[in-house]
Amino acid sequence: MTTFRLSRRAILRGAGGIAIALPWLEAMGVEKVAHAASAPAKRFITVWQPGGTVTFKDANATQPNDRFWPTGTETAPVMNEITAGLAPVQSKLIFCNGLKMGPAGSGEQHQEGIVGMLTGGKQSSGAGSYPKYASIDQILRQRFNDAGYTGSSIEMAVRWATGKSQGRLSPINALNFEFAGTHAPMPPQIDPQDIWKTYFVSLAPSSAAATGTQDLVTARKKSILDFVDKRYSALSSRLGTADKAKLDAHLTKLRELEMSLSSVVTATTTCKAPAQVSTAGYNPKTGLQSAGDGSTLDLGTDGMIPTVGKFMMDMMIMAHACDITRVGTLQWSDTEAKHTFPWLKLANHHHFYQHDGGFQPNQCAQIGTWYCQQHAYLVSEMDKVDMGGHTLLDESVVLFGSELAHPPLHTKNNMPFILAGKGGGLNPGTNGRHIKFASGGTSNDLMVAILNLFGDTRTTIGDAEFNHGKLSGLTG
Fold it and tell me: pLDDT digits over 341-352, tens only?
């Protein structure tokens, strides 16, 4: 007789993207006891931008003209042209110089970078060409769930699924992967108004319309829980007596959560609804009409990217301040980024400036500079949120990254990775730090180091061949 086994990282996913973690069950095997660090980080945010950066003048990478990495020394960095916008928050940052993208050379040039960045895994040969590992954001979500936290992760994206993906989830745009087998990409939430209504309308019941919307949101969440409840029942029939008792206890907690949905978030001086910004003219699903070559334009939606991006950053910050989530991801577009930049007076899309129209370093630097300015806003606003004697940034780890380094050649050496915050002992020093790691370090090694900041003691992530040991010096 075959014994039923269940992964200890298993979750049940219901309608609307809700994910409910399971308690530890005997069917999962031996329970592992986590040995956490003395003061682990509490929150993790990933911010991803497309197209790498500019460290060479020419497409063939033969004429150096580094416009990204700081000058100066490790402990007294001086911001460069692209990173100048980060100067106001540089004391909160660690620039991680010299790291290779671990899964480089394992798949399609852009795709291998985005799907491998947080998973440490190469593209599979199966359908969809996704890696077979969960991303570190979901590893951390599970870690928080194992410790009793009931919230899930939040994934957001601005002007997402452009070009060839045509508004649909694809290896071109997938960054987050859950524990559900080989191909388990997670689509981000892309409608800013839906995000606000889902998470914040209860904090701002300023009108009958808002109250009515909250009633609908609550009803929807309850119906989702009913759906997931049925899945629990189906699983229960396959478990032993001890596991059934544990599952029943977990269902009781689930129902307690349901009963509190109408007031799950309470406004405080720290937790408050971000202003609901008008996004009129922005079509989050415009990618459905996009063309593979970027020839189909939506200038109205493109022109709203700065407004929508700031709105989403504000919601991401407050979702953490209100403890609605402890793990979040914000994607600025996808690896094609086939949208225009009207506010920068750039009429062509990012891919055009990277290589479709020939490498144009000035335009790529202009785009990179704007992204750094947005990163600075997120960091500075997180540092303003008082969490009781320390700031939201102090208890967090924020990772800024991309899918490649040098755009025209798609090279993935010296990836533009930046860390922010002090969570888990992360130490940016007094003026920020620019660490130049020895040759051979990879993004996998960086992901392991980040996991260790949260008390996760693993020494590898993803495919073993891309691991060379945890990066040292981040807490020094």
Answer: 999 999 999 999
227 and 147 fall within a common domain: no
State both tokens at 224.
């989702």
Asked if residue 198 lies in contact with residue 220, where contact means CB atoms within 8 angstroms, the answer is: no
Q: Range of 154's domain?
A: 40-200+274-466
Q: What is the predicted pLDDT for the residue at 15?
A: 46
At what angle are helices 208-236 and 192-199 packed, to 10 degrees? 80
Q: How far is CA 215 from the centre of its chain?
A: 29
Give the C-alpha separation, 12 to 24, whole Å: 14
- The stretch 208-220 carries a mean pLDDT of 50
Are the CB atoms for 378 and 391 separated by under 8 Å? no
Q: Do residues 413 and 450 share a domain?
A: yes
419 and 371 share a domain?
A: yes
Residues of the chain with pLDDT > 70, as a percent, come to: 80
Query: What's the domain count of the chain?
Result: 2
pLDDT beyond 80 at 217? no
Place of tokens 């979750």: 11
- Scanning the structure block, which residue is given the tokens 């649909």? 168
**Could you give the CA distance from residue 7 to residue 3 in angstroms, rounded to a whole number?**
13
Higher pLDDT, 154 or 127: 154
> 233 in a domain, yes or no?
yes
Same domain, 170 and 185: yes
The C-alpha atoms of residue 312 and residue 316 are separated, in whole angstroms, by 6
Amino acid symbol at 375: H
User: What is the pLDDT at residue 395?
Assistant: 97
Q: What is the C-alpha to C-alpha distance for residues 22 and 7, in angstroms, rounded to an integer?
A: 10
Provide the pLDDT for residue 439.
79
Question: What's at 392, amino acid-wise?
Answer: L
CB 442 within 8 A of CB 467: yes
Q: What is the pTM of this model?
A: 0.83
Taking only the tens place, the pLDDT of each residue in 292-333 is 999 999 999 999 999 999 999 999 999 999 999 999 999 999
Q: Tell me which amino acid residue 232 is.
A: Y
Per-residue pLDDT tens digits for 390-404: 999 999 999 999 999
Residues facing 177 on adjacent strands? 185
Question: What pLDDT does residue 257 have?
Answer: 46
Q: How far apart are CA 196 and CA 372, in angstroms?
A: 25
Is there a contact between 177 and 138 (Cβ–Cβ < 8 Å)? Answer: yes
In a domain, 54, yes or no: yes
